[in-house]
TrEMBL record:
Name this polypeptide is given: Orn/DAP/Arg decarboxylase 2 C-terminal domain-containing protein
Organism: Streptomyces nojiriensis
InterPro entries reported for this sequence: Ala_racemase/Decarboxylase_C (IPR009006), DAP_deCOOHase_LysA (IPR002986), De-COase2_C (IPR022643)
Keywords: Decarboxylase, Lyase, Pyridoxal phosphate
Signal peptide extent: none
Known cofactor(s): pyridoxal 5'-phosphate
Region (Disordered): 23-52
A Pfam family annotated for this UniProt entry: Orn_DAP_Arg_deC
Domain of life: Bacteria
Every Orn/DAP/Arg decarboxylase 2 C-terminal domain range: 4-83
Amino acid sequence: MPAVKRTGERVFVAVGGGMSDNPRPARYGIRCAPRPIGRRPTADSRTATVVGGRGEAGDILAAEVPPPADVRPGDLLAVPVAGTYRLSTASGCNLVGRPPVIAVHEGTARLLVRRETPDDLRHRDVGA
């Protein structure tokens, strides 16, 4: 669910994911290719930087990519082929659970690994 910030000519699209669930762009400079899904854009593309919601300077998922100019809160952006090791390198930074793993084939989506919940994170805490 992106938030969109326009500052002059620069456009930033902040998404729910980030460097804790997909560390490869921040760690290794891997370029992601986010794509809007769920609705047809009504505007041409505009260059933007897609950032995560972790508040870290390196939380840039994709710089200078062309999402539609009409991207707005509530839209879904998919990061196809996020990487083989994405799930195994994900962390619970800032107590944000790891995302689900979803396979998509010929227009059909199938959940492979469910999203990590706050209860999952709390379950590991044994207290003081």
